[in-house]
Amino acid sequence: MSGRGGHTPGRTALAVHGGAGVIRRSDLSPDREAECRQALSAALTAGHSLLEAGGRALDAAVAAVVVLEEAPLFNAGRGAVFTRDGQHELDASVMDGATLSAGAVAAVRRIRNPVLAARAVMEHTPYVMLAGAGAEAFAREQGLETVDPSWFDTEGRRREWRLAKAAAIEGDARPEEFSLGTVGAVALDAAGNLASATSTGGLTNKRAGRVGDTPIIGAGTYAENGVCAVSTTGDGEYFMRTVAAYRVAALVQEGGLDLASAARRVIHETLTSLGGSGGLIAVDSRGMLALEHNSPGMYRGMIDHRGRVHTAIFGGDAPGD
Ligand code: ASP
Q1: What 3-state class would DSSP assign to 119?
Q2: N or C: which end of the chain has fewer CB within 10 A?
Q3: Could you give the residue numbers annotated as active site?
């Protein structure tokens, strides 16, 4: 399928996100902001160097997400949010646009890099998703690293969890500012292949067993050569109900919209009209990128074909800021 959709041979593109939500300048110290931008840059560089070496979009997207899972700043891998009972339950998925193969894990508690397990599900099982203890047993069989659940703990997330619990007692069930930090990447490789990957700890103080959009193919992640690759972040239930990632692809493929218009429509019309908050990143086979959100901020970044990294956090930031 590669080469469809106006791909210029040799052209690559990569974008990442580190979650959407209420991110105020006043809440983010200059040091913290610099750390976030640095982590986004490191993820972009990891993916870009693979693409430059002729690597596949799937390898680049996964490599970028692994860097963000390892960064305790984001709500994925280490730094994942706490569930209502003080645990971590992580979700992740990948999709390879060349073959429409996909893999996902949901509600896993011990897999250090859930995105690698999602990829292993795609490559080494006949299934698309494995959940819970079965997914963990499979990851071990595959030789993936498992960790004690406390490995995911960070003080900042524990503090947020306590605040969320207190807020819930007062009736505010899910303060928006706590749904931050899901990570994702979308990539186009030199051969025209598209891929995406997304990983999250879900929502702070979520009920045990709650699974959001991140591991749901078509909601949190979608990739199809000749069309686009998409990774989403935000109120997962809305992204599931609107099949948001696939909706962008359908608007491009069936609706004839360009990628930017499709991404804008899904975020600012479909999602907004239902009251959902969040954002998405997407790339098409020409290497056009869309980074769209209706939340006040979204950690995001892209790398251009010259290898220049652009990161942005707040609303109104151009990605080059
Ligand atoms: N979409 C994720 C979920 O609902 C959360 C997020 O992106 O912040 O699990």
Answers
A1: helix
A2: C
A3: 182
